[in-house]
Amino acid sequence: MRFAFASSATLAFAVGLVSPAAAQPAEIASASADASADRSAPSAAGDFEERLVLDTGRAPLPPPDPDRTTFSLQGEYQLRYRAMTDLRLRAPPLSDPGATTLGQHQYIAHWLRLSPRLHLADKASIVAQIDVVRGLIAGDTTRHVEQVRDARAELSWYEVHPRHLYLEVPSSVGVFRVGQQGAHWGMGLLVNDGERATLFGDPERGSLMERVLFAATPMGRSGPLLVTVAADLVFEDSAADLLGNDVEGQDEGEGDRALQAVISALWRARRGEIGAYGALRRQTRERRAKTSLAQFTETLTAAVLDVAGKFDAPVPGGGAHVYGELEAAAIFGSTSFVPSGPTPPSGPGAQRAPVAVRSIGGAATLGAVHVAGRGPRPADRFGRVVTEIEAGYASGDDDPRDGVARRFTFDPSHNVGLLLFDHVLAWKTARAATIAERELFAASPEPGIRWLPSKGGVFGAAYVNPRMLVRPARWLDLKAGAVIAETTADLVDPYGPGRAGGGLSTYDGGDRRRHDLGVELDIGVDARIAMGRLVTIQLGTEAGAFFPGGAFDDAAGAELPDQYLLTLKLGVIH
Predict the structure, then answer these.
(1) How many Cα atoms occupy the beta-carbon half-sphere of 385 within 13 Å?
(2) Is the Cβ–Cβ distance between 307 and 275 less than 8 Å?
(3) CA distances from 62 to 4, 135, 551 (A)
(4) Does residue 69 sit in helix, strand or coil?
(5) DSSP class of residue 198?
(6) In this structure, are residues 238 and 12 in contact, taking their beta carbons and an 8 Å threshold?
(7) Residues with Cβ within 8 Å of residue 197, at least 6 apart in sequence
(8) Does position 23 have pLDDT exceeding 50, yes or no?
(9) DSSP code of residue 64
(10) Are 388 and 199 in contact (CB under 8 A)?
(11) 398: nearest Cα among 497, 503, 328
(12) Would you give the end-to-end CA distance of the chain in angstroms?
């Protein structure tokens, strides 16, 4: 039996009103086709590799041995210290009118993730993953934002989160998987496994599916076409929680029952790939009033169509590559998971008629990398200078009561900067949902409150995100980026102070017609220090400054103060 240590991460995906999941094309391809068809596998000298752009120092997964049973254990421990400006938020008017900020200035958090794999020769594999400990170790806790998962509202360093446990069986016609697993598609706007490195920030915990999946290459083992079909019961993602543990105060049994069917097709070539993805999702959750017998069912029925692709090409003369990727998605259907939708005739707490879902979003990245280093192996090369720009769009909803849900939300693990989306808007939407749940609808639950928090995902906004990375040495990254954004529709809080009078305002109570979100500047340093063949130490720091636009002015016209954030990072990966 052989033992190996490397590293791994997690899975995550969320999308406004629906969180479908697809197969991980690269991973399935490596099991169902020759390694040469897998663009994530080691390439020949001179070819483009994704590690030239972002290098985490993680070792590749050990392949199965065709002649014997092997076992590998990959793991990583990550520790974060974060200090930030105390963010201004709308105060709960009844329970704590003095709580005008988030209440958090600094904290220390960590997670330990283990990923064992048992390969029964090349006949089958058992794959598992668990966060043995995860949570807030020390520091300030947040207040009145508990309507989101991972609210950091209490110190709890010892949480345990089982993540994966599935059986994978390859065959001459494809790969079969069954068990609890996750997925990734395209740039990760809708379906994100949380394992892809991002220039700034950390991936979220991710999503888990009870899944049956089959992936095949109809044109032969090394053919360009990969087709995947899957059937899921969602265990946990940012849009559903089977056990009902996603927000504070949920009664036992108030969990989601989310079923979905997924199909995707991916055409792969040496210099790029393009594919289409479709999903149908049906989700329900039973809700009960706390002071009466009134109850109703929140429902969602939606279809998703997503197109994604990427390419790379050498620059004439050698020594550099250009690359790019894009993803565009549309969601159609109906739902009663809508904040402040049309009020039913029988009053709050009764069954609400579904509204239409019509939302779209997408993003594209274009970049170039100058390659340094020489040697016979691809690993001898590294990206010396990386420049890229990402632009994205997510539709917004300026009137939650008009019978059409238009808000599109990116997966939280698709990080865009450090502050605007991951911090400022994430906590403002969480505070709005918490006030609504605890005070406005304490006696009779309002449909869709859980769907209001963005959880750090881009929503209702268009942005430009230029980024640059310089490596003076293979192990050292110097990075910088900027985010310039504005809303794609009026930014409104469905439960804001003007709601009772029929008016809508922003999350700060200001003029909803102000669309300028502001400008963010980010810098950072990352280092990877190899300690022999088994261990790599990761050291780093990231800092961001956010200069808010008029969309964050309050009712009196006062501007939101500039926001600052500093992160110190320590990681140990095997």
Answers:
(1) 4
(2) yes
(3) 7, 30, 49
(4) coil
(5) -
(6) yes
(7) 54, 55, 56
(8) no
(9) P
(10) no
(11) 503
(12) 19
Task: Please give the Cα distance from 109 to 435 (Å, whole number).
Answer: 26
Q: What HEC string does 5-57 produce? A: CCCCCCCECCCCCCCCCCCCHHHHHHHHCCHHHCCCCCCCCCCCCHHHCCCCC
Beta strands in 46-123 (DSSP E): 70-84, 106-120
Average pLDDT across the chain, whole number: 85
Pairwise CA distance, residues 329 & 308, whole Å: 9
CA 111 to mean position of chain CA atoms: 17
Which residue do the tokens 């421990």 mark?
77
pTM attached to this predicted model: 0.89
Any idea how long the chain is?
Answer: 574
Q: How high is the pLDDT of residue 12?
A: 30
φ, ψ for residue 234 (rounded to 5)?
Answer: -75, 120
pLDDT in tens, 344-357: 444 444 556 788 99
CB atoms within 10 A of CB 347: 9
Query: What are 411's two structure tokens?
Result: 């997966």
Round to whole Å and give the CA distance between 526 and 528. Answer: 7
Tally of CA atoms within 13 A in the half-sphere of 175 that contains its CB: 24
Q: Give the number of C-alpha atoms closer than 13 A to the C-alpha of residue 284, restricted to the C-beta side.
A: 6
* Cα of 114 vs its chain's centroid, Å: 20
CB of 550 closer than 8 Å to CB of 517: no
CA 396 to chain centre: 19
Cα–Cα distance for residue pair 505/551, rounded to 1 Å: 10
Residue-wise pLDDT for 443-487, tens only, equals 777 777 888 999 999 999 999 999 999 999 999 999 999 999 999
Cross-strand partners of 283: 258, 300
Question: Are 413 and 421 in contact, with CB atoms under 8 Å apart?
Answer: no
Contact 202, 80 (CB under 8 A): yes
Residues 188, 6, 26, 167: is their CA dihedral positive or negative? negative
**Distance separating alpha carbons of residues 151 and 315, to the nearest angstrom:** 46
